[in-house]
Amino acid sequence: MTEAAIHVEGQQPSLHVHAHEAHAPGAAQAKGQQHPIRLYLVVWGWLFVLSTCSYLVDYFGIHGHLRWSLILLFMVLKAGLIVAVFMHMAWERLALVYAILLPPGLVLVFVAIMVFESDYTHLLRVIFFTPMA
Amino acid sequence: MAETALTNIGASPARLAGWRGIVADWSSDQRAFKNVSWGKAMMWIFLLSDTFIFSCFLLSYMTARMSTTVPWPNPSEVFALNIGGQHIPLILIAIMTFILISSSGTMAMAVNFGYRRDRVRTAALMLVTAAFGATFVGMQAFEWTKLIMEGVRPWGNPWGAAQFGASFFMITGFHGTHVTIGVIFLIAIARKVLRGDFDVERRGFFTSRKGYYEIVEITGLYWHFVDLVWVFIFALFYLW
Lengths: 133, 240
Prior knowledge:
Mean pLDDT of chain A: 78
Number of helices of chain B: 7
Strand order of the largest sheet of chain B: 1-2
Shape of chain B: globular
Mean pLDDT of chain B: 88
Number of helices of chain A: 5
Largest sheet of chain A: none
Order of helices and strands of chain A: HHHHH
Radius of gyration of chain A: 23 Å
Strand content of chain B: under 5%
Largest sheet of chain B: 2 strands, antiparallel
Shape of chain A: flat
Distance between the termini of chain A: 76 Å
Largest interface: A-B, 77 and 82 residues
Structural class of chain A: mainly alpha
Oligomer: heterodimer
Low-confidence stretches of chain A: 1-30
Order of helices and strands of chain B: HHHEEHHHH
Number of strands of chain A: 0
């Protein structure tokens, strides 16, 4: 029960004060995720800029490591903006944020495994199944 | 505190900071997501499972592309279009990207107007979002038609590695399906908004539960996720 007492007295970070989205059945609807429209328009603008940038990477035919790092950078920035602002993750309670955002991170382990696996397959194909010239 | 008391089961959403707060939430019995309604939590968990589905598609594409000894077709050329005598690389995909981002923008604003209980604007913005989505699917149908006419099949294509077609149809097909379902979802909810279901808390046909404007945000979560997946497909399949 001491835990419960701490819960009630716990402080809300100021970020969360306006981001309250709970509803009580039958009670008046709470404010929900209310953020200024301006914020959405700014994010929208940035998504356009970032998309244009990633398109220009292809348009100007940048190649090699610079191309891949730029593509990944723009991808991560766009994904971050969408999840954080459009999907309101920046204002959600941490218990939800970590429950949703940590598991996909484990996919990177899968990626690493498959990189080794496909390198190995590639090697076998080069050694034993080289296409006839 | 008066406002924060309005949760579904009356639990206080106040918390400890950082990791201690997460542990306290998860170890508190009955309910880990204190101030998140079940509808939103379930949509997030569904989206998490969908993330794994698309991750598997993109991973199998990566594996196919890394392990083949045949050169991969150059997407920049494959998806180029001739517009007004100009040969522009990847232009169709770029336009589709901008359309989907715009639809995310209108959706975010619809959620905002929903919580302000602005019935007409919410429904209008949702229908605009649905229209953008339908346009996107239309352009994708055009893209598929063009590629099929050029001889791309799941088992081969004229330009290189045979796995290109299988990866392309699988990944964009599943994404297009998600967009289509999203459009239907948006139209269904927009109709309810317009009819005033969430102002009178009319009970749902299937669920018999009262409707709240929060469903607009939940629909929005799904829609933004579709946009999010496209960000990854655009980067990893079309640009790589």
